[in-house]
Amino acid sequence: MTQHDLSAELLAPDFYHYVSAPIATVAAGNDALVVDWPDGVQLSCHRFWLRENALGQGGIDPATREGIMDPSELSDAMQIAAFELNKSGDLRVTWAPQSADDSVISTYHSGWLRHIAEGKHLPESWVPAPEAWNASTLSAPPQRNAHAVVKDNDALCEMLNDLLRWGVCVLEQAPTEPGFLNELAARIGPVRDSNFGLLWDVRADVNLAGDAKTNTTANTGLRLGPHTDLPTREIPPGFQFLHCLINEADGGESTLTDGAALIEELKATCSDDYEILSTRRWVFFNRGPGIDHRFSAPIIDPLSGEGVPTIRAFYPVRAFPDMPDADVGEAYAALRRFHALADDPRFELTFRLGPGDILCFDNRRVMHGRKAFSGSGQRHLQGVYIDRDEILSTARAVNRARAARHKL
Ligand SMILES: [Fe+2]
User: Fold this and answer.
1) % of the chain beyond a pLDDT of 90
2) What is 2-121's CATH number?
3) d(CA 156, CA 150)
4) Where are the alpha helices (DSSP H) in 171-287?
5) What is the whole-number distance in angstroms between the Cα of residue 308 and the centre of ligand 1?
6) CATH 3.60.130.10 is held by the domain 143-400
7) Looking at the DSSP assignment, which residues form a beta bridge with residue 381?
8) Residues spanned by CATH 3.30.2020.30 within the chain?
9) What is the 224 CA–ligand 1 centroid distance (Å)?
10) How close is the Cα of 383 to the center of ligand 1, in Å?
11) I want to staple 385 with a disulfide (CB 3.0 to 4.6 A). Which of 95, 192, 245, 316 is the partner?
12) Confidence band, pLDDT 50/70/90 cuts, at residue 58
């Protein structure tokens, strides 16, 4: 007989520590066991799901805590022969023997089952839900100290929560040495590369001669209206970090507009525009020697349908309508109103980045922009992208660690 209790402490199919949550009753359901807690919370566990999540014995590998059972190995003979609760209130399942000398008993941690019953296994768990904002409800981006975020996990947690809740955060008092973003990124996750490089510069010499070359409007002194970067990609970069090293130019103030708030406004006041913007497609196109990134998608792109849609709104690379000819006129009309709304002081924050500030924001949700700049002063920013998956993964890990420390 093989027991799945691999140590004195009952292990779970992942590496988190679970506080015991003794189950009150267990009953047979439809090809499943239904467990109930004393407060009425209930979880139905399909027998195949239980078999896949048996720690050891070909279910979950104790070393990697990953499933190792190919679905083709699941068989109709994998039946629950008996079930009970142990003294600690964990679930014990005796599996029907597959052969004469085979008998398997699996024990499932009550706290682990409870976290599933509470939905804490879902992707949206352990991180704050997005809250739409406008210029009245968020008068300035939340501010955090850059050194604290690099040194302290609670500060990192607060910053990531700001990014997931508001889509924006400004880190202050960072060193003004180039490359500091690499140190910050190392705290969060891998940097996303692009044809602009892992760590890219936003720098324009305002005295550039007319024949000077740059491959992006960002590296000019031109105004950049509210936009999101790299809509030419199937999944544009999730988050953007802009580190201000020098800002001596006249003008060049930064702007931010919450796309989540624009979507709410459109749905409430102009649902026709919302429908057009979220269904009519445009081809976005990075023109450059040796590159040809293109993607066709609507301005408000639901992508997977989860969470806030992705805003694709960088007019320098919006190249062609990809919709019936008859729709182009109304698509332009909706686009004009959308961009006017994005630049409306009711929705748009305007502020000036100073040396040592790092503007961090959700590049798929929050539209950013820049006023034109001129004069003799220099303006130099560096940027990195970090994908949403990395932000979410680190945010869940630090939120869970903090909850465990505070026994939340
Ligand atoms: Fe940009």
Assistant:
1) 82
2) 3.30.2020.30
3) 7
4) 180-188, 259-269, 271-277
5) 19
6) yes
7) 202, 244
8) 2-121
9) 8
10) 10
11) 192
12) confident
